[in-house]
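User: My advisor, Dr. K., asked me to get a structural model of this assembly before our group meeting. I'm new to this, so sorry if the format is off. These are the inputs:
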Amino acid sequence: MEKRQATIKDVAVAAGVSFKTVSRVLNQEPNVRQELQDRVRAAAAALGYVPNIAARDLAGGRSFLIGLMFDNPSEAYIGQAQTGAITRCRETGHLLIVEPLDSADDTQRTLDSILSHLRVDGLILTPPVCDNPMVLEAIERAGVRYVRIGPDRDLDRAPFVAMDDVAAACDLTRHLLDLGHRDIGFIKGHPDHGATSRRLEGFLRAMTEAGLTVAPERIQPGAFSFESGMEAAETLLSGPSRPTAIFASNDDMALGVMSAASRAGFSVPGDLSVAGFDDSPAAQMAWPQLTTIRQPVAAMSAAAVDMLVEARAPGRVREPIANRWLGYQLIARGSTAPPKRP
Amino acid sequence: MEKRQATIKDVAVAAGVSFKTVSRVLNQEPNVRQELQDRVRAAAAALGYVPNIAARDLAGGRSFLIGLMFDNPSEAYIGQAQTGAITRCRETGHLLIVEPLDSADDTQRTLDSILSHLRVDGLILTPPVCDNPMVLEAIERAGVRYVRIGPDRDLDRAPFVAMDDVAAACDLTRHLLDLGHRDIGFIKGHPDHGATSRRLEGFLRAMTEAGLTVAPERIQPGAFSFESGMEAAETLLSGPSRPTAIFASNDDMALGVMSAASRAGFSVPGDLSVAGFDDSPAAQMAWPQLTTIRQPVAAMSAAAVDMLVEARAPGRVREPIANRWLGYQLIARGSTAPPKRP
DNA sequence: ATGAAAGCGCTAACAC
DNA sequence: GTGTTAGCGCTTTCAT
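Assistant: The format is fine. Below is the predicted structure of the whole assembly, which you can bring to the meeting.
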């Protein structure tokens, strides 16, 4: 059988101080002499002391639990989000609770029930739940603090961590420019999504910075679907002159572009370079593989944990959490190459 | 701001009893008159009372946290396991904690650290961590109760929930027999895996029950890999007489069989029926789609939660947890059909 | 069958 | 700077 876990009092006795001083050291509160801090830490280490979460919760109102709420069709995305969150949680002494939501049964009652039993210091929401009004309302009603990952709407409603879509689109466009492309088509995303305008903005900025102007017909509407990418590509490739590269606002549309291109007799990347966005699993299955932008999912959820934990640090006033914009990763693969005719 | 959460005392006042009686009702302890039970429950419901987990933990030593530890390459498997576990956790008032392990950094120190901070009522282990000796030792050292899902080795070491491989293999064989097959080849799995012999046993049992004898050359070795399936199929299909169906001990090998068959000029299922095991994602992507056995992953993790929760029910002596064998699902798809020549 | 008292391990106010 | 005194909300004794 196990020996009884050491408590804060055991540490206090071993260090020759009052147990309150131990508490101060553990919580990094000010007003403890360096010498005592060292003694306390040494004693804690020697005893293998681990604070009792339940007691800290009961007395201090902090559960040291972080919740991850999701309702995402992509298992891979969830896996990355969990990994990133748990890694940071371990560093901060928190535990990660998962709360998968099944859009089917998410009645208001179910949500309220889940939330009333949930006792976390903060909740992380991934897309698309992070944009679900009913969920957000339930969480706010329950008075739980939350951080959204890559939200699409209502950016002022709550703190979030997101990828810098503008910079990423800018960078991806520069990749095409560096390859030698000058005439680049762009396919917009679904108009309801916030990312749509940000990606367009990044594209235009890079083009402008390169001293290029973009003809209006080079910018086609899309809807983030394979079909919409195909249709847009047909339009872009049918005119009297055609672009040497197409930047689709996501991978699904980029795949549609590749399909339309091959049907029209153009080879990728020989006759046409194609770039996507998201690095979805399909991006690697396509042939040639898609050049795209990968979201830093693990880093985003890790950052979300940080934001939540910091917001509840001892002696912290309840001030608003600042949003964070994280870097992305440009994945250059086979679907982009220098244009044949300069 | 939120109103203060109702406590057990509020419920007691509302119900006109002592708060200890409320505690008894909530914990389903004996010795409370039915009338009082009803009154307490009504009061609790009216106040929207939810027990404080931290307080229960501190006083009673139960955290109402269940941990799910995994290190599994298959995101889909993990997703199902999580869904099944969380569903049951919600019913029992528990929270689910995830502990992904990264085989790379699982030093003994890391494991001990993780486990010392983990404060759960029980741990669920999925394959392959559930067969990792270092992990099991660390958990036992930490004195944490655990249940394994689909373990492969050391079945007596700790309670587990598993699929009945023998029955499933038996059933899948019967499916082939019912289709009219009499000469069936079998490809064994990797010799190190416990499932290997169980699946063979099920196959042989069904054949025997059908009054058939199996020639030794109809049973080929394999290693659960695509290549080993291919090689085994080449052997099975090259002899003077060939089976009309092949039962591979997992999907990867079944896919190898299909590949070898088409290379040898046999069509599936026209000339040869092929059955696999596992219902891996690839089983649906193949053409024709694979007839196979699906493991009840979600049901298994739900059962694991049950076993853990029941073991800690109030007034429960610490008696051993009984293992559970769960049903499987036979997924009949296009790769199996009646034989051409009877 | 019910209630009263004690205390789980810690943090939050206060003292000194 | 450091220690003391109260609880947090519940379960556990132990009375009755």
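One thing worth pointing out at the meeting: The interface with chain B takes residues 1-2, 48, 50, 52-55, 57-58, 63, 65, 75-76, 78-79, 82-83, 86, 90, 93, 95-100, 102, 113-114, 116-119, 142-143 of chain A (CB under 8 Å).

User: Perfect, thanks a lot.
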